[in-house]
């Protein structure tokens, strides 16, 4: 709040009392919202405690009592405890001092040391456990926790904003109110002495500045509304469970905050060098225009983009790169920036529009289709977030030539512009070279070569790109990550989403039926790689893969689970659709407009219980969020490992509340098996450089196989193998 100001025109007496009374009311409303928030948090912590205790007890029960000697550096003698049946740390931790002293050979010192060591291990275990809520197994302990959390979640992001503002306001106002107290009475001022009187008048002037600040008037309304929200009657048990299913990510975010069991700080900060991480942490993110609360790692990602200005955010799929970008735009908007540009594939344009509107108060302006020139002109005049596609961008005037300066350019699926010779790359460069802040979003910054990553770096930081060389690839992933740290941040699901349900992957190997094998031999004989890949579905009546797919869908139906089926081929999806019959959603494909794709996904998610969505993996693997599905079926392996990663991540992402089971349908002794042998090496390369890994030290060029070379190699190998079997 603004302080200081002239003191000569600040009278004491009645007007001072009125001013101080107004200030005390403002401070009182701030203290009230802090008290109301503290009460809501304490209720949630009280409900959380027994769940954490149970997890800790379970963890301690698996730790042998011998581990107590490590805590006491070998000073503790455990023979008597072990002989008495105290075989685990949990057994000791649950015992009292008196109980342990009753054991022959255990004195007071040994009992105290054993209990202290057990408590120390229990504290360490508590720091590592995280509560996971199973919607299919509600219990008496979890329900009160959800009811308590519901109050905080329902109050929304205004709670954090109000609490932060209340803390700042009380810290500023309360000392001023105490110092200004003599000004309540002219008589007190008269007997206070000149120096004390001057201090009181100065404090009174500062109080007046705070009270009359327009921001303070807004805070009165904010504090009142948040207090009302925090004091509402508890939700019903059913309401709390339903709300959790709808927005589980917000519940888990609160859980991590309350339990202190968030991700490891280094992991959440992408293992950045200390100097960069410290600079990012020191930046305050203005969330005035946000409608959502950010996870800790998401706030760090937004601040990284703002602090480093021209960066690649390469978080693994499902961690909320979009909301981090929106948070960065909202921060800049709060600071006075008015124009922003988002460039993305056409398939995700509608998703960007929806996310900007849902997650912030910023105005989304679609600049796409036949009316794009008019929309561009309207954006140039009124501002907001222009959302356009790679194909439309080249038709828009860029930079100064367009008469507009963008506060930030965000490029989604930025690996689409890794080839600088393409028209889309040139169009993006036309904007990024005139913009101070650029944010590239991609979960796959390099699929096969470090050179591809360097191409993205060249667009962002031409001076730094030459510093990232193939030498860093040869030296391993640590050298690579150090070299790109100023412009690259990546976090993985395992590192930052401890609550994410398990991902269970199963390769479903099937033997060709005689008809399958006949179709496959014909495809191999033709030398047509894509025909070989879909041959397993060429004879639907006897297709072994199709039979297994039907079994998996039937099993999911029996359990009331939703299924998404991915294939590269529309022809395969048509076959699956005919095999499953009516009631199947889709298929989602590149031929369907983006808005229609989203409608299909929304309708699929709205079904109560079992449903099946069919999707081409190229279309559904990018931009669509399919957390409603907990069973994923891949009809065939993909040439690019990242395509499968992206497709699975559309279901196994923040907001998923069930274990995700992935079934990959594979035919033995076929193109599938040959592909997996080769792709395993490409997958390891991706893990080493796009993810964090201590294992891979080989140069990327040594294991790269281009798509065309892979196809030719597999066709030749299969032709030779089948010829030898004849």
UniProtKB/TrEMBL annotation:
PANTHER family: SNF2/RAD54 HELICASE FAMILY
Keyword DNA-binding applies: no
Name the UniProt record assigns to this protein: DEAD/DEAH box helicase
Top-rank taxon, per record: Bacteria
Signal peptide (residue range): none
GO molecular function: helicase activity; hydrolase activity
Source organism of this protein record: Streptomyces atroolivaceus
UniProt cross-references to SMART domains, sorted A to Z: DEXDc, HELICc
Short name of any one Pfam family annotated for the protein: Helicase_C
Enzyme Commission identifier(s): 3.6.4.-
């Amino acid at each position: 709040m603004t302080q200081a100001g002239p003191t000569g025109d600040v009278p004491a007496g009645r007007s001072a009392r009125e001013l101080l009374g107004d200030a005390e009311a403002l401070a009182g409303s701030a203290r009230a919202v802090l008290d109301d928030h503290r009460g809501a948090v304490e209720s949630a912590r009280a409900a959380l405690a027994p769940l954490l205790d149970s997890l800790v007890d379970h963890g301690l029960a698996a730790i042998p009592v011998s581990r107590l000697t490590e805590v006491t550096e070998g000073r503790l003698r455990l023979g008597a405890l072990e002989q008495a049946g105290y075989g685990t740390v949990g057994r000791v931790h649950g015992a009292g001092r008196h109980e342990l002293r009753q054991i022959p050979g255990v004195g007071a010192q040994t009992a105290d040391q054993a209990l202290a060591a057990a408590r120390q291990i229990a504290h360490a275990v508590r720091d590592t456990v995280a509560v996971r809520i199973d919607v299919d197994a509600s219990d008496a302990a979890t329900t009160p926790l959800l009811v308590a959390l519901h109050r905080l979640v329902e109050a929304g992001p205004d709670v954090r904003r109000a609490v932060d503002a209340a803390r700042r306001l009380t810290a500023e106002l309360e000392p001023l109110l105490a110092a200004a107290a003599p000004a309540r009475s002219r008589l007190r001022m008269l007997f206070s002495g000149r120096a004390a009187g001057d201090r009181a008048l100065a404090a009174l002037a500062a109080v007046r500045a705070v009270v009359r600040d327009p921001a303070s008037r807004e805070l009165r309304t904010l504090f009142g509304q948040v207090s009302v929200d925090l004091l509402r009657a508890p939700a019903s048990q059913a309401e709390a469970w339903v709300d959790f299913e709808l927005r589980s990510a917000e519940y888990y975010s609160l859980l991590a905050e309350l339990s202190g069991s968030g991700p490891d700080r280094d992991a959440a900060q992408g293992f950045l060098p200390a100097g960069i991480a410290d600079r990012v942490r020191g930046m305050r993110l203005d969330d005035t225009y946000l409608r959502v609360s950010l996870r800790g790692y998401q706030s760090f990602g937004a601040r990284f983009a703002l602090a480093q200005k021209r960066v690649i955010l390469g978080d693994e799929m499902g961690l909320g790169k979009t909301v981090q970008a929106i948070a960065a735009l909202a921060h800049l908007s709060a600071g006075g920036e008015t124009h922003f540009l988002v460039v993305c594939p056409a398939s995700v344009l509608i998703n960007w529009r929806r996310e900007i509107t849902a997650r912030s108060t910023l105005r989304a302006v679609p600049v796409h289709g036949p009316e794009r020139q008019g929309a561009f002109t309207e954006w140039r005049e009124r501002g907001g977030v222009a959302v356009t596609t790679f194909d439309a961008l080249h038709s828009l005037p860029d930079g100064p030539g367009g008469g507009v300066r963008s506060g930030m350019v965000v490029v989604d699926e930025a690996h689409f512009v890794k080839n600088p010779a393409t028209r889309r790359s040139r169009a993006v460069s036309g904007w990024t070279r005139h913009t101070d802040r650029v944010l590239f979003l991609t979960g796959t910054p390099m699929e096969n070569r470090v050179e591809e990553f360097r191409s993205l770096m060249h667009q962002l930081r031409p001076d730094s790109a030459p510093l990232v060389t193939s030498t860093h690839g040869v030296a391993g992933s640590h050298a690579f990550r150090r070299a790109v740290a100023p412009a690259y941040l990546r976090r993985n699901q395992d590192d930052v989403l401890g609550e994410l349900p398990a991902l269970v992957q199963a390769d479903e190997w099937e033997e060709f039926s005689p008809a399958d094998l006949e179709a496959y031999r014909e495809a191999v004989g033709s030398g047509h790689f894509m025909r070989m890949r879909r041959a397993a579905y060429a004879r639907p009546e006897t297709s072994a893969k199709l039979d297994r797919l039907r079994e998996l869908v039937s099993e999911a139906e029996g359990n009331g689970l939703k299924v998404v089926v991915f294939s590269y081929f529309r022809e395969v999806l048509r076959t699956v659709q005919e095999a499953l019959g009516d009631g199947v959603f889709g298929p989602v494909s590149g031929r369907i407009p983006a808005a229609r794709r989203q409608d299909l996904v929304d309708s699929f998610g709205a079904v109560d219980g079992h449903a099946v969505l069919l999707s081409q993996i190229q279309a559904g693997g990018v931009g669509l969020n399919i957390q409603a599905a907990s069973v994923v079926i891949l009809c065939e392996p993909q040439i690019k490992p990242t395509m499968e990663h992206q497709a699975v991540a559309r279901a196994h992402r923040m907001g998923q509340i069930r274990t995700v089971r992935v079934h990959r349908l594979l035919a033995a002794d076929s193109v599938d098996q040959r592909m997996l042998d080769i792709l395993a090496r490409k997958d390891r390369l991706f893990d080493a450089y796009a993810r964090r890994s201590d294992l891979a030290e080989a140069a990327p060029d040594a294991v790269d196989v281009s798509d065309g070379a892979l196809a030719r190699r597999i066709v030749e190998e299969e032709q030779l193998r089948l010829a030898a079997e004849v």
